[in-house]
C-alpha cells in the first residue's frame, strides 16, 4: 500500500523547488494525455477516460496559469533586477521566448479544452493526437529552457531574502495565508454581502454514483480502490486526512496530517507523542479520520481505536525521512509555545550541529495507527441527494454494510 502514496510537495520557502514540482505535475498530465489517446479507441469515454479528462482539465484550468504568472510577474522581473553581464544578456534573449511560450501554450490548450470537456462529460470519445503532440512538445521544450537556464540562475543570484519574497508572492497568488483581520467589533462594509455570498455558494455534484451492490465486501479494499482512483485523477494531496481527537474535558480538536501507510491493520501517521493530538490520544484512544477528494466529489469517514506503532516501525519510517525533516522532528517540541520564529530556527541549528548525518529517532516521536471500526464512503450526487455506504466491524472481525440516507 505504501507505494501508492505520493511525495509531498516542497514548501514555499523553496520557491524554485516548487516551480520544478509544478513541472513534474505538468509532465504527469502529459503522460495522462498520452494514455488517454491509447485508451479511447478501445474503451471509449468510459469512467476511467472521463476521470482522466477531468484531471487534465482541472490542472490546466486551475493551476497552470498560476505557474505562468509566477514567472511573468515575479521570477523574471526579479531576475532582471539582479542579473549582470552574461546573465543579463542571457535573460534578455530568453525572457521574450518564455513569455511567447505562455501565449502559444494557452492557444494550444484551447484546442484541447473543448475535446477534453466533451470526453469528461461522456459526450465524445475522440482526442486529436496532433493537438496533444503540439501541446506536449511546446510545454516540454518550454520547461527544459526554464530548468536549464532560469532556475539555476535564480539559485545562483537570489539572496535568502529574495527567495523568501518570491515564495511569499507565490503563496499569495494561490490564496495561501489570510490577510490581517480587522479590530474586534469593526465590521467590514461588505461583510453582509460576503456573508450572503458564502451562504449562496453551492456546487451540484453529479460525477458518479455509489451502489451498495457494487462496493467490495472488505472496506479496506474499497478504500484502496478509491485511493488508486484519486491518484489517477491527480487529486491534490490525496493522502491528506483530518484527524479529530477529543480531550479529557470532552472538547474536540482536528488537524490535517498525511497518512503514511494503510493496510488491513489500519491507517498510520507519524507525529510527536507530546503534541496536543498525542496527549489527547493518551486520554481518549478513540479518534476519527476524514479524507475529502473534491475533484472526485468523494469523502471517506473513518472511526476507530488508535494505538502506537511498534518502535521498529517508527525507527524504520524515521530513517526513511529526509535529514532536514528528522532534524525538525528533534528540534520542535510540537504544540508547545515559543517566543519567536528566530528562536525556533536557533533550536534547529543547535540540533543540526549536534545530531550529525544519521540522528536517532527521539523517544517521544513515532507512529499512530487507527484501527477502523466504522468506515463510511460518501459520493456526491445531484440536489444534495448523496450516496452513503457505511461499513461496521462486528465482534468476530467481519464487516456489515448498509446504505444511509443523505
Based on Cα principal axes, name the global outline.
flat
> Structural class per helix/strand content?
alpha+beta
Low-confidence stretches: 178-190
Q: DSSP strand (E) fraction?
A: 15-25%
One letter per element, helices H and strands E, the order comes to HHHHHHHHEEEEHEEHHHEEE
Number-wise, the strands total 9
| Helix-residue proportion | 40-55%
Estimate the mean pLDDT confidence.
88
* N-C termini distance: 31 Å
Radius of gyration based on Cα positions? 24 Å
Q: Would you summarize the structure shown here?
A:
By secondary structure, the chain is α+β, with helices and mostly antiparallel strands. It contains twelve helices and nine strands.
Describe it for me?
A hairpin with a 5-residue loop joins strand 8 and strand 9. With 406 residues, the protein is an alpha+beta fold. Strands 1, 2, 3, 4, 5, 6, 7, 8 and 9 form a nine-stranded antiparallel sheet that branches.
List the helices and strands and how they pair.
Blueprint: H1 15-43, H2 47-62, H3 64-82, H4 85-120, H5 129-157, H6 160-173, H7 191-200, H8 219-232, E1 240-246, E2 252-258, E3 261-263, E4 266-272, H9 276-283, E5 286-293, E6 298-308, H10 311-320, H11 323-331, H12 341-355, E7 365-379, E8 387-393, E9 399-404
Antiparallel strand pairs: 1-2, 1-5, 3-4, 4-7, 5-6, 6-7, 7-8, 8-9
